[in-house]
Structure formats: structure tokens, C-alpha cells
Design brief:
Blueprint: H1 18-38, H2 42-56, H3 65-84, H4 88-108, H5 110-127, H6 131-142, H7 154-176, H8 180-198, H9 203-216, H10 223-239, H11 243-257, H12 265-272, H13 275-302
């Protein structure tokens, strides 16, 4: 976990003024906080962040863009720190405030702050414990990113890649826990964000779709939908000449198409191993063991 890099523009400030000194010291403090976070000294990082927030209260204009920028960056740090300290409720509160501050900054100056708005969404995907709330937050904040993609720059692309990967990982974890429908929501958002960034269907979008279809194939009622999804991306994989993805798609489609036995012998066998049958089997075994022991004792007494 690392702090975000959000440099301030202090050119318009009087270098002898109190506001300039407050922002300069805050920027220096963030450098120290970043080092503490990298060293996993979260309590020290928290203490330094809180002290910095106290100093920021002395700033003369809370509507100033540079003040709001350093405030947003500090909220980002605090959300990460409290999450690392397992104070999830406080972390989510700071995230909520962060979106309010950063959302406005991103609209005012998408070139400068768009990247950080998307990174905040990536943070939300990681730290919000309620997966339903996480998806609702991401969908809501996605509406605020439409203007950002009109001025896509390297920073926004990189930030979006981080968001997509984070969504994919959450989807993967949800699927591993058996929460397939919830996992699909995260995969769907990952695909949407990735398409918005690239404007086309490429290797990443195909790979994400394959993962999504694989999860869907685990739910019987969704298997045909998964097949249609795979059929839709297969031409893209062929056009891009990505052989390994072609093979994955075809293999998964064949697995979905394979008919299931009406009464599989394995399923019948497993059903026969009910608790009552198992208990009866164990009881019979114990009875035989007792009979064997009794017989052995009888033989010994006769001897």
C-alpha cells in the first residue's frame, strides 16, 4: 500500500504568507506519511496525518483549490491507514468524504484530478465491506467519470487499469467464496470500465469476459448466457490472433455444450452416502466388532 502522489501548485501564493507555509509543511508531511505507510508503520502514519489535519484548519480559504487538493490527498491516506488498522467503519466514512471533495475537483479540472478520482474508485472497490454498497458507489461515481474520458491522458489510463484489476480481483474472491452473482457484478463493471478506457475490445476485455463466462458456467441457469457471451468475443480473439484466448473460449464452450446425464452414476453414489446410511453402516461395523471381540473372549476362556 502506498500514498498517492498529488503535487500542489503553490505559484500563486505569497511565500511569506501563512497559507503558503501551511501547504508547504502539509506537502512535506505527506512525504513522511508515505514513507511510514510503505514501512507499514500505520499508527505513526495516522498520528502524523491527524497532526497535519489540525494544521490545515488554520488555512484562510477552505474553497481554495490547493487546500482542497491536499485535503483530498490526506483523506485518501487516512482511508488507507484506517483500513490497514482494520477500522473499516472509519475508513468508509473517510472514503465518502473523499468522493465529495474529489468529485468536485475532478469536474473543475479533469486533466489534473481525473486520475485521482478513478484511484478513489479503486480504493472503494478494495475497502468497502458491503459488496452491494461497493457496487452502488462505483456505479454512482462512474457517472462522474464521463467527462474525464473526453480528455483521457496517461494518468487516467493507468488509474483505470488499477481500478479494472481491483474489480477483477474482488470478483475472483467473491466467486471463490461461492457468491457467483455478486462476483459477476464486479466482473461486469471491470469490463465496462476497461472498454470505456480503451474504446475497443482488446486482449484485456476478452480475458475478463472469459473469466466472467467461467463464473457464469458454474450456475446452471446461466450456462447458455455464458455461451452467448463467449461466442460474442470469439471473433475478436480470432481477429487479434490471440491463440491462447481462442483455445480458452472454445474449450469453455465445449464444456458448456457437453450434455449432462439425467441420473449420473456419481451423483447416485453420493446420494447413497446419506447420514442415516452412514450411521447404519457404522452401527453394523460396531456390532460386528463386538461380536468378534465376544468370540475372541470365549475362545480364550475355553483355552
Amino acid at each position: 500500500m502506498a500514498s498517492i502522489d498529488l503535487p500542489l501548485d503553490l505559484k500563486a501564493f505569497d511565500k511569506k504568507g501563512n497559507d503558503y507555509n501551511i501547504l508547504l509543511l502539509a506537502e512535506q508531511s505527506r512525504g513522511a506519511i508515505a514513507s511510514l505507510m510503505e514501512d507499514e508503520r500505520y499508527m505513526d502514519a495516522l498520528e502524523r496525518s491527524v497532526a497535519m489535519m489540525r494544521d490545515l484548519r488554520e488555512f484562510s480559504d477552505f474553497e481554495n483549490k490547493e487546500f482542497r487538493a491536499i485535503f483530498a490527498a490526506t483523506l485518501f491516506d487516512l482511508a488507507e491507514i484506517h483500513y490497514s488498522l482494520k477500522d473499516y467503519r472509519q475508513s468508509e466514512k473517510e472514503l465518502e468524504t473523499l468522493f465529495k471533495v474529489l468529485g468536485k475537483l475532478a469536474k473543475e479540472d479533469p486533466e489534473r484530478f481525473g486520475e485521482f478520482h478513478i484511484l478513489a474508485m479503486e480504493l472503494a472497490a478494495r475497502i468497502i465491506r458491503s459488496r452491494k454498497k461497493a457496487i452502488e458507489t462505483l456505479i454512482k461515481e462512474k457517472l462522474n467519470t464521463e467527462a474525464l474520458y473526453e480528455k483521457v491522458n496517461a494518468g487516467i489510463s493507468s488509474a483505470t487499469d488499477r481500478l479494472v484489476e481491483s474489480l477483477r480481483k474482488v470478483g475472483e474472491l467473491m466467486a471463490a467464496s461461492g457468491a457467483y452473482k455478486e462476483a459477476l457484478k464486479f466482473y461486469a463493471e471491470a469490463v465496462k470500465f476497461s472498454k470505456d478506457r480503451s474504446g475497443k475490445v482488446g486482449r484485456l476485455e476478452i480475458a475478463l469476459t472469459i473469466e466472467m463466462a467461467e463464473v457464469m458456467s458454474r450456475v446452471k441457469s446461466m450456462r447458455q448466457r455464458a455461451r452467448r457471451l463467449l461466442a460474442a468475443v470469439l471473433p475478436h480473439a480470432i481477429a487479434l490472433e490471440i491463440v491462447e484466448l481462442e483455445e480458452q473460449i472454445i474449450s469453455l464452450m465445449e464444456m458448456i455444450d457437453k450434455p449432462e446425464e439425467q441420473t449420473p452414476r456419481w451423483k447416485t453414489f453420493l446420494n447413497s452416502l446419506s447420514y442415516s446410511n452412514l450411521k447404519s453402516y457404522i452401527s453394523r461395523g460396531e456390532s460386528k466388532q463386538e461380536e468378534s471381540s465376544a468370540g475372541k473372549e470365549k475362545e480364550e476362556s475355553e483355552d
